[in-house]
Amino acid sequence: MxxxxxLVDDEPGIRxxxxxxxxxxxxxxxxxxxxxxxxxxxxxxxxxxxxSDVMMPQVDGYQFLKQLREDPRFQSxxxxxxxxxxxxxxxxxxxxxxxxxxxxxxxDPDELVAIVENLLIRRNSKTKSTTEEGETPDIAELxxxxxxxxxxxxxxNAISQTPAPFKIDLTPREQSVLNLVAEGxxxxxxxxxxxxxxxxxxxxxxxxxxxxxxxxxxxxxxxALEHGLAK
Length: 231
What we know:
The structure is a single chain. This protein starts with a strand and ends in a 5-residue tail after the last helix. The protein has helices spanning 12-24, 35-44, 61-69, 88-97, 109-132, 139-154, 172-181, 187-194, 198-212, 217-226; strands spanning 4-8, 28-32, 49-53, 79-83, 101-104. Residues 129-136 have low confidence and may be disordered. It has 231 residues and is an alpha/beta fold. It is elongated, with a radius of gyration of 21 Å. Strands 2-1-3-4-5 form a five-stranded parallel β-sheet, sandwiched between helices. Helix content is 54%, strand content 10%.
């Protein structure tokens, strides 16, 4: 599956030209004409990387980046700035704000593709290494799942319950962890509530995935709500 990119630029000509080139290079691209439109798109579908112009009306690139970095879901999301500004002070401002790469216009589209590919490779290898080492999963992905769980909970009364398709025996501690996951709590909060370590909570969550045949916290909560497992 190709990487999902979000391109935010208020100049239609540049927006379409860059979109076409990125799509020809194998990426899936959503476009927005301003930062607010880009933010709205991100609420529906989290991209793998954001490419944004800096000089935009109302909300500029720096403000947009600040908004992204203040949201746990997007703190580690790679961001590339495209801008007519090429002054060293402007680049420093971008890096201090948390941008990953800074490409002054006019630029070679092949250079943009190389930057995007490099950032995606780095992000994927980082996510893979933390998962293999058994550490806490990517905070942005976890926060995204928590947001989805909370959205599910608002529809809790509308979810019809049916018996589980197979027998599920949960230990008292697994049941306690499941109940707290279904409240939308993160591992650190669950560990504090149950007076145990975060690593132990991760082990219980993994066992719950295995026993219910689910692969994410969102799937787990949906399964629990549909089959009356969460109390």
